[in-house]
Every structure is written in C-alpha cells, then in structure tokens.
Amino acid sequence: MMKIELSFCLRHKISCIKVNPVIIKIIIVLLLLFILFNLFRALFIMVSGRDNGRPMSHYLGRRVMFSVIVLIIVIAALKLGYIYPNANPTTHIQTQINITKPHQQNANTKQPPEKQSVYLG
Question: What is d(CA 112, CA 31) in angstroms, rounded to the nearest whole number?
C-alpha cells in the first residue's frame, strides 16, 4: 500500500500528506462530542422555553451539518486507507475443545418416572 502511494506521488509530482490514524480518530471523537453538545443545547432551549437567544433549530441544524462532516471524513479516511474497518466477523473461526469426560449412564442414574396419585378426594 505504501509503495503504491509513494509511486503515485512521485509519478504525478505531488506531495502526499501523511496522516496519523490516531489524529483522524481524535478529530472524529471531538466532532461527535460537539454534536452531542449542540443536541443538549437545543434540548435546554426546548425545555426552558427561552426565546431571547438563538432558536432551537439553529443548534439542530448545526448538529446535522457536523454529522454530515463526520460521515464525509469517515468515508474519505476509509477510501484513502488512513483507517481500516473491522474484519468481517464470519472470518473468525472459533474452535471449541471439549475437555469434560462423558458421563456413563446406567439404570441407577436415570430419573425415575413421576408417580401421580389416583386418589383425588
């Protein structure tokens, strides 16, 4: 992956930007926290009923805008190879090892049949 990226940069005579995946993840987390902050600001305005400041729709619109920005950043980082998605869970094979000894059943270990009383009086 690195060789392909480096040859692409040299061939097209552009400078490739090296981005640390941790920085991208920190930016995404900070944007998500800012989205939550705007959501709770809108909730506070809705509950308090104050109209002297900005309307509730301002904070809800800001929340939607930053959600779109986070989505674009995640898709771009995935496509550019800066971050990688989790592996498909079906590719993991789980092996179960049976370490218990089988219990031999004989006539004494079986449950006795239930008995009902015929007398209903």
Answer: 66
Determine the angle formed by the axes of helices 56-80 and 21-48, rounding to 10 degrees. Answer: 160
Nearby residues of 34 by Cβ (< 8 Å), 6 or more positions away: 66
pLDDT tens digits, one per residue of 32-62: 999 999 999 988 888 887 767 788 888 899 9
* Nearest-angstrom CA–CA distance, 81 and 88: 17
In sequence order, which ranges of 49-98 are alpha helices (DSSP H)?
56-80
pTM of the model as a whole: 0.56
Amino acid at 9: C
CA distance 80 to 8: 13
C-beta of residue 81 within 8 angstroms of C-beta of residue 1? yes
| DSSP secondary structure letters along 85-119 | PPPPGGG--------SPPPPP-TTTSPPPP---S-
